[in-house]
Amino acid sequence: MIADGQIRSRSRVEQHGEVFTSEREVNAMLDLVLQETERIDSRFLEPACGTGNFLIEILCRKLKVVLRRYRKNQSDYEKYAFIAVSSLYGIDILEDNVMECRARLFERFDCEYSKLFGENCQETFRDAIRFLLQKNILCGDALTLKTNAGEPIVFSEWAIVSDTQVKRRDFAFDEILAGHNKQTSLACFAEKAKYDRESQAFIPAPVAEFPLTDFAGVVTYE
C-alpha cells in the first residue's frame, strides 16, 4: 500500500514507476550504514534520487557532524560543509525532480549556514554550493548511463587540496562502474586506469581536469 505523499500522480507511477520513499524507511535504511552517513567525506550516489529524500537525510547527518566540530570557525565550517555537499550525487530521469532535489539540498545547507553565521555568510560560497549541486545532481537514466540529451553521464570529483583550494576532475559514469566490476580484467584497463587497493577497484582516467581554484572560483570551471 502506497501512503499519502509517496506519489505525485497515477500517470507518473505508470509512466516512470515514481514512488517516493517515506522518511521512516529512509532513516531505517541509512541506519544500516550509520557510520558512513556520519563521515563527512563518504560519497553517496542515489541512481533514482527523485526529489532527494535519501540525499537530504544524508546531508542533514553530515552537517550535524560539521556543526559539532567546526561551528566556532567559519572558514573551517565552510571547508567541511563544501566536502559534505560535494560528496552527494544523484540521477533522476525527470527534470522537475532534479530541480527540486537541488533546491532542497541547497535550502538545507543554507538554513544551517545562515543560522550559524548570519550577515557574515559569503554569497560567493553559496554560489559555489549551487554550482556543486548543478554538477552532482543530474538529469538522466542510470540504466542507459546517458543524460536526457543522450550524452554520457559525467560526474565531477571535488578534492580540497588546502583550506580553500579545490581540485576538480570529471569522470565518465560508465567507466567508473566498469572499474568496480569484479569481472573487469587488468588488461582491459591497463592503459586508461589504475588499480586502487583501498577501494579494490580500477580508477579510470578522468575525462577532464581543472586547475586549482578557491571556492569562489569553482563557478568559473565551465
TrEMBL record:
It catalyses: a 2'-deoxyadenosine in DNA + S-adenosyl-L-methionine = an N(6)-methyl-2'-deoxyadenosine in DNA + S-adenosyl-L-homocysteine + H(+). It comes from the Archaea. Keywords: DNA-binding, Methyltransferase, Restriction system, Transferase. Gene3D superfamilies: Vaccinia Virus protein VP39. Its EC number is 2.1.1.72. InterPro entries: N4_N6_ade-DNA_methylase (IPR050953), SAM-dependent_MTases_sf (IPR029063). PANTHER family: DNA METHYLTRANSFERASE YEEA-RELATED (PTHR33841), TYPE II METHYLTRANSFERASE M.HINDII (PTHR33841:SF6). This is site-specific DNA-methyltransferase (adenine-specific). It comes from Methanocorpusculum vombati.
